[in-house]
Amino acid sequence: MKSILHFILPALFLLLVSPSNAQQRISTPKPNVLVIIADDQGWGDLGFNGNTTASTPHLDQLAKSGVVMDRFYVSPVCSPTRAEFLTGRYHVRSGVSGTSTGRVRLDLDESTITEAFKNAGYRTALFGKWHNGGQAPYHPNCRGIDEFYGFCSGHWGNYFNPVLEHNGEIIKGNGFITDDLTQHAIDYVNAPTNQPFFVIMALNTPHSPMQVPEEFWNRYKDKQVTQRGSIPDKEDLQHTRAASALNENLDENVGKLLQELKDKKQLENTIVIYFSDNGPNGNRWNGEMKGIKGSVDEGGVRVPFIIRWDKKIKGGRKIAQISANIDLFPTLMDLADISWKNHQPFDGISLKNLLFEKNPTPIDRIIPSFWSNETSIRSPNFRLSNKDELFDMIHDPQQTKNVASVFPKEFQRLKNWKDEWIQHVRSELPKDDARPLIVGDLKMKLTKLPASEAEASGSIVRSSKHPNDSYFKGWKNENDKITWNIEVASDGWFEVQAYIACSEKNIGSTLEIKFNEATVGNNIAAANNAPLLGMEHDKVVREESYVKDFKPMKLGMIQLKKGKGLLELYSKKLLQPNDLECNLITLRRVTE
Q: What is the value of pTM for the model shown?
């Protein structure tokens, strides 16, 4: 027996400490990833950047313990920024040309960061605002996101118990929207599983409407605003106060989620990223930078950015080198050590060396900003404006003095780069987006066609000039129509519903839809005297539409054939003009 053990034990020892087994025993799990995106929050809205009006202690602490990328750039508005984060590429390459009416859709030949992490074994989720396509195959559940709770539009008209969706199905939210989204994120990260998570919490504040819970509003409604916007005459102090209250609410929710991760001992192995999608949605204090949301100047595209990864990335630092949202896809792949060969070539770069090296080599790069046919570009030291003015951003961050004649070589270098980018990259964005809305894609049973993506004819008008979350009203006769430019993905039978509001006077009126040769319709059987909602919570008079609690009306079953055309909604019998309103139709596939 002794002689047998003499041979077995050394062999067993070698087996146990062999490189492959040793590696398995000491290998660390893949890091979780949490990306938090604010909506319309400016660089100057947070305490760690010098704001003395708003209270943001949790984000200030996150900045203190993490790394602040102090010159981090995004697009001037929502949907392009989100597309660039998802793809690591300039939004002009991806088909995203607007913020509503179907122009927000991310081209189907683009792969996403969520697909990459899902392919690597992560469970993926988005809580909040998507804004890159509302119908399959553009829907978030078709772009690598397993769990979706939020909304697909760029703007939501009611923040208290709002209509939302959960994995494509229409549901009702619970309480104030940011609180609700955060609670769903907390529940998700606490799920009993060994899978790492990739979570995007895309909170939709301080975007308008400026609806604020009273608890937070009471802290700011009478507060003196000592820091003023760069154009004080254009600042609405009530709007600034509401934005500050919303930012404190957002900060509190970020704190709740981070504390939950800490309590569950997950924070240490979670890469946390925080940034905003564009500059501030008002002329409030923003470090005296020129420009706000929608502008390609510094204030419209420079936003707060924090990254934290405990015990991996040394915190307590501020990095002044320029970086951008297009860098996040390659950076997170690098940090998590995953690969994904299906993506298009990145326009962004990995920031891993910048984050880990003590004295990283400066990168001489250029970051373009484009919106509404305007282009500016940013180098480490200069910004070339849309009007080809050169500004020294080190000594003149407010862009007050054109120094093109002082630095002629730098001016010409940047001018040449900008011209080349406009000619060869910006030109990839089509002038007109003729893509039809997809109906009946087999990836999802339910297709939602909102008013924001339709056109009206006759007497019908929108409830607001801003399409997002608007509805149609002014219906007078059978010649009035609402139309959606659609493509039916494949043949099938669909159950159709229209979400309407009307008085008792229109009970007995008809509603029909038609697509090519197929029609279906029904009589209105019940009234829905829905009042306008929103003003009771607004702290600032809104420009966008108020909303209503529209109710679904069954139109019936319709057989649709694969193909393109106009889907028309009309009434052949309208008993009461200027009474019928509609904000959405849905088509649920029942057979293939």
A: 0.94
